[in-house]
Design brief:
The chain has 227 residues and is an alpha/beta fold. 40% of the residues lie in helices and 20% in strands. The two termini are 26 Å apart. It binds calcium ion. Keywords: DNA-binding, Phosphoprotein, Transcription, Transcription regulation, Two-component regulatory system.
Length: 227
């Protein structure tokens, strides 16, 4: 999953990004409101983390303008003050949740997971299809009750496919949701990752779950997809 982090405090931004990358997220950073709004509009994100107090454009203003473009990406606001007014203003401007600074990373992670679950309309944190089960909060993968070890990027791709099971996910969408802005999208790295994922997930199992639809994209399904 890919996150836009709009935060002008460099040290805090670095700390949040580091934690999120360790969790397998792809993270783009913006350091003021204008830059944040630009990235939010031009790129594709699963979540936007938006500080309220920002140079050039406030977080509330970024949020309002972004929603003005009919964009529905979930927004988590960071507010330095615990004043109710700030929170109300944030929520009224179109934010989905807020977190008061200072916060512990575990809480940020929990809020992000809750927003992702809501945005992909899931009831539980655990995503399943047949005998495959993944838990994005713990980064665990099991097939037929056996643990499978995945690298963070492999996990991120599998998570995206699982959140959208039975839907075609294009190569571009995989790139947009799993890699950050600096990724060279001309490489065939997605196909390579899908290849290793298929080995780890499907090898030795009668029902194949990961499918490549040539020229279209990928799909996780327990039935052979028709194109
Ligand atoms: Ca700030």
């Amino acid at each position: 999953m890919r996150i836009l982090l709009v935060e002008d405090e460099k040290r805090l931004s670095h700390y949040i990004k580091k934690g999120l990358v360790e969790e397998g997220f792809a993270v783009d950073q913006a350091y003021d409101g204008e830059e944040g709004l630009y990235f939010a509009k031009e790129e594709t994100y699963d979540i936007i983390i938006l500080d309220v107090m920002l140079p050039k454009l406030s977080g509330v203003e970024v949020c309002k303008r972004f929603r003005g473009f009919k964009k529905t990406t979930p927004i988590l606001m960071l507010t330095a003050r615990s004043e109710t007014e700030d929170k109300i203003l944030g929520l009224e401007s179109g934010a989905d949740d807020y977190l008061t600074k200072p916060f512990v990373f575990a809480e940020l992670k929990a809020r992000i997971n809750a927003l992702l679950r809501r945005s992909y309309r899931q009831v539980s944190n655990i995503l399943t299809i047949r005998d495959l089960e993944i838990d994005p909060t713990k980064h665990s993968v099991k097939r037929d009750k056996k643990d499978i070890k995945l690298t963070p990027k492999e996990f991120a791709i599998l998570e995206l496919l699982m959140r959208r099971k039975y839907e075609v996910v294009t190569r571009t969408q995989v790139i947009e949701h799993v890699w950050d802005y600096n990724f060279d999208s001309l490489s065939n790295v997605v196909d390579v990752f899908i290849g290793t994922l298929r080995k780890k997930i499907d090898r030795g199992h009668k029902t194949k779950l990961i499918h490549t639809l040539h020229g279209v994209g990928y799909m996780i399904s327990d039935k052979t997809p028709k194109v």
